[in-house]
Amino acid sequence: MEHRVNEIQISYREKLSTLKSLSVTNSNEVANLLFQNWDNKTIGLHETFKIVLLNQSNKVKGIYPLSHGGITGTLVDLRILFAITLKTLSVGIILAHNHPSGQLKASYQDKQLTQKIKKAAQLFDVKVLDHIILAPDGRYYSFADNGIL
């Protein structure tokens, strides 16, 4: 009896040179980058969770939309988050999601998820540099700036 299995192929290709990309140094720069790369039509409609992928010099390799949810929440699968992080050989990540309500207070669930991701990231020597919450009106909340990272 013949046993066949799927062939696994993992790849990452840079379309734009990371060496020429933006190097982020503070939450304001990250928030501006996120707002420029967020869908203005849905930022006030439903929650989306994204990760900003960084190299060793905090240069942005890309932004990956991890999940799209409902009005009050979205699910984040850590296995997918770290599959993307590791596949892109990123050494730093910034977490980001929006609150369609405009409320910039980090919820208990937001804090728990951030700590869970941070703990898992340590196993891979990946730094979680911040978690940014965006409001539809252009305001943002930074976990790092508020000392809860």
UniProtKB/TrEMBL annotation:
InterPro entries: MPN, RadC_JAB, UPF0758, UPF0758_CS. One of its GO terms (molecular function) is metal ion binding. One of its GO terms (biological process) is proteolysis. The keyword Coiled coil does not apply. Keywords: Hydrolase, Metal-binding, Metalloprotease, Protease, Zinc. The keyword Protease applies. Residues 23-149 form the MPN domain. CDD domains: MPN_DUF2466. It comes from the Bacteria. This is RadC-like JAB domain-containing protein.
